Amino acid sequence: MGRKLDLSGLTDDEAEHVLKVVQRDMKLRKKEEERLSEMKQELAEEGSRCSILSKQHRFNEHCCIRCCAPFTFLLNPKRQCLDCQYNVCKTCSTYSKRDKAWLCSACQKGRLRKQFKREEEAW
Ligand SMILES: [Zn+2]
Ligand SMILES: [Zn+2]
To answer: Whole-structure pTM over 0.70, yes or no?
Structure first.
């Protein structure tokens, strides 16, 4: 705040009113800043919480291990990956017809890599 308010042309009552408005405005702005920084902190905590919780089995009962999306009945059903045994959501799982089971995106990629390797070795 480098600029000083010029209240010389105002009556005492008017000056007081202006000051009150300015003070209220500053308070509101400060509150808003506090709220924003709280939100930022919450987001950061959310990120680290996800990585910690994903290692815990109970977390995986309710949320996808790959993308942390919560499971919901019908809309986002829980599916267990055949390879890693973790629960994954609809978007992170693919059905393997050969195994008649679900595979998570990470394990599917791993399998593809292995398959390519085997084919390379067969040549
Ligand atoms: Zn997911
Ligand atoms: Zn898996």
So the answer is: no
Cα of 45 from ligand 2 centre, angstroms: 26
pLDDT tens digits for 81-96?
A: 999 899 999 999 999 9
Q: For the residues of the chain, what is the DSSP string, one character each?
A: --SPP--TTS-HHHHHHHHHHHHHHHHHHHHHHHHHHHHHHHHHHHHHHHHHHTTSHHHHHHB-TTT-PBPBTTTB--EEBTTT--EE-STTEEEETTTTEEEEHHHHHHHHHHHHHHHHHH-
> Per CATH, which fold does 12-122 belong to?
Herpes Virus-1 (3.30.40)
Residue scoring higher pLDDT (19 or 58): 19
Distance 100 CA to ligand 1 centre (A): 20
Cα 111 to averaged position of ligand 1 atoms, centre (Å): 18
